[in-house]
Predict the structure of Peptide deformylase.
Amino acid sequence: MIQPIYVYDQQILEQPCPDVPHNSPILTNLIIDLWDTMRNAQGCGLSAPQIGVSYSVFIIDSKSVFQSIGTAFRHKYYEPDDKGITETFINAKLLQTSSEIWTAKEGCLSLPSLVRDVSRPWKIKISYLNQNLEKQECEFTGLTARMILHELDHINGVLLLAHLLPFSQKMLYFKLKSIKNGKVKVTYPTMKKQKLVA
Ligand SMILES: [Zn+2]
């Protein structure tokens, strides 16, 4: 089911998420909701806290991004044998990161209309459970690694703003204010902070 996406200034986006118990009754529906919500918002990654659930679960679709990038540019984002993935990550743990760093533009469904350069490792190794709760230990590179690191940040309560220099963060003051006040128009349902009524 499509859920509203929590946007900037919601407290749940700034809290680290615990691992989800394997037998959690909400897990199956949570995964379905994440895919429905991400596809509806035309995103390529989404984490559970972004739909209001504080558990370590996120999804990635770097396969459709691969297909949408012109063949002449793919080498900037993908290794030659990589065509992207569609995968669910449960209780993921970052095991290794490469010293090779690259910079690329990132956006976030919780920070609509904001796109900024972020530097991240090119290659990572992580362990996680897939949606069948099978333990995986894999290496990912390029854009797929970037997307996983972005979602892992969400699981740790970190937004991409944290990767910007303090000066750049200050420059965003008015933009962030309009996001949290719902002034930025989006094509998907969002959840803003409820105003307290006396
Ligand atoms: Zn995000």
In short: The first strand starts at residue 5 and ends at 6. The domain at 5-191 is CATH 3.90.45.10 (Peptide Deformylase). The two ends are 33 Å apart (CA to CA). Residues 27-40 form the longest helix (14 residues).
